[in-house]
Amino acid sequence: MSGAGAPDFFYREAQRLGYVARSAFKLLQIQNQFKLITSGSSVLDLGCAPGAWLQVACQSLGPPRNGGSVLGIDLKEKGFSVILSDMCPLVSGITTRDAALSVELGMQAVNLALGEAALGVGDVIHGKDNDNVDDSTSVSDCDGVLRQGGHLVIKLLESEDTQEFSRMLKPLFRKSSLLRPKATRSSSREIYLICQSLKART
Ligand SMILES: C[S@@+](CC[C@H](N)C(=O)[O-])C[C@H]1O[C@@H](n2cnc3c(N)ncnc32)[C@H](O)[C@@H]1O
């Protein structure tokens, strides 16, 4: 007999099979009996840490070409190591309007990624309080979902704000670059801001 804390059959099996917790076998049993997750399912896992159900759910999705996805959330910090935003507004053809909307979408991605650390960036891009933001800004009390060392990619429609957007994020990351991919149509104003390696919180 195994009490709580004693390595039992399921604990040892989880270790052998590479699951992060024995709870994997609970979802495996649910799957075996009810087959809820099928190829191409989209799954939301509430209370996902440490991630054993995520592992089982991902294994149950079938081949990536079927388009399945698993998203987990938890009170415990997990964070993402890469955040990609290819968000783009519905283009109206009014260049300044489209560019401003793309900056708004870019800021939403930055806010999600960096949380509190993004506040100064938004103020400067919107022309407020420029004097209070220092180029040596570092990530403080970051409550965003991008992990330290993580990378952020944001699509923008190029305008006079693009360089400012890039300049204000630069101090928060080890490296930042602007890229116009070869696959971008020549008529498009899109450009990608690639921010690499989020600096440590202070
Ligand atoms: C039993 S564990 C889940 C184990 C997970 N299914 C697995 O297989 O790895 C319960 C989780 O619920 C999370 N949790 C509790 N309350 C929560 C809340 N209000 N929002 C998000 N997560 C929560 C806890 O942080 C904990 O990680």
Protein described:
The chain is α/β, with parallel strands linked by helices and 202 residues long. Helix content is 32%, strand content 22%. Helix 3 links the parallel strand 1 (42-46) and strand 2. The longest helix has 20 residues, at 95-114. The chain starts with 8 loop residues before the first helix and ends with a strand. The model is unreliable at 128-142 (pLDDT under 50). The structure holds S-adenosylmethionine. Residues 21, 23, 47-53, 73-76 line the site of S-adenosylmethionine (SAM).
Summarize the structure.
With 202 residues, this protein is an alpha/beta fold. It contains six helices and six strands, in the order H-H-E-H-E-E-H-H-E-H-E-E. The protein binds S-adenosylmethionine.
Write the layout of secondary structure elements.
Elements: H1 9-17, H2 24-34, E1 42-46, H3 52-59, E2 69-73, E3 80-85, H4 95-114, H5 119-125, E4 146-157, H6 160-169, E5 173-179, E6 190-198
Parallel strand pairs: 1-2, 3-4
Antiparallel strand pairs: 4-6, 5-6
Bound molecules: S-adenosylmethionine.
The site of S-adenosylmethionine (SAM) has 13 residues, from helix 3.
Number of strands: 6
Bound small molecules, by name, code or SMILES, are:
S-adenosylmethionine
What is the rounded Rg? 22 Å
Q: Which regions are unreliable across 5 or more consecutive residues at pLDDT < 50?
A: 128-142
CATH top level of the largest domain? Alpha Beta
C-alpha termini separation: 48 Å
Strand order of the largest sheet: 3-4-6-5
Helix and strand content put the structural class at alpha/beta
Q: Please, what is the CATH homologous superfamily of the largest domain?
A: Vaccinia Virus protein VP39
Assembly status: single chain
Order of helices and strands: HHEHEEHHEHEE
Provide the CATH topology of the largest domain: Rossmann fold
Helix content: 25-40%
Indicate the mean pLDDT. 86
Number of helices: 6
